[in-house]
Amino acid sequence: MTSLNFLELDQNLVSVAQSGTFKSLNYLKQLHLGHNKLSALKNQMFSGITKIRNLSLHNNQISIVEHGSFDELSVLTDLHLSFNHLLSIKTTTEFLSLKWVL
């Protein structure tokens, strides 16, 4: 499964994803976790998926984005966070490659 490019986990009642959950998916370019029950993005949650370009987290219950959640996502171009409970995002990541934030 390490050569997987696209992973869609929309509408699966996912409520928790721990740090490093996706670490072995080195070639992943798109990750869809929309319409789930995620309430927090954990530190290093997306570590190891450095090739990811599209990250869809819309329609969850996210209110907490821990420091370091997006640290390894340097080529991310599309970030979908709409319809969550976000008040602010504190990160040291500079999203220079982002084209879309929804």
Q: Biggest sheet, open or closed, and with what strands and sense?
A: 5 strands, parallel
**What's the total count of β strands?**
7
DSSP strand content: 15-25%
CATH class: Alpha Beta
Layout of secondary structure:
Elements: E1 6-8, E2 30-32, E3 40-41, E4 54-56, E5 64-65, E6 78-80, E7 100-101
Parallel strand pairs: 1-2, 2-4, 3-5, 4-6, 6-7
Outline of this structure?
The protein is an all-beta fold. The protein has strands spanning 6-8, 30-32, 40-41, 54-56, 64-65, 78-80, 100-101.
Characterization of the model:
The chain has 102 residues and is mainly β. It has a single domain (1-102), classed as Ribonuclease Inhibitor (Leucine-rich repeat, LRR (right-handed beta-alpha superhelix), Alpha-Beta Horseshoe), CATH 3.80.10.10. The chain is built from no helices and 7 strands. The strands form 2 sheets. It has a 5-stranded parallel β-sheet with strand order 1-2-4-6-7, with no helix packed on it. Strands 3-5 form a two-stranded parallel sheet. The protein is globular. The termini are far apart.
Features:
single chain, mainly beta
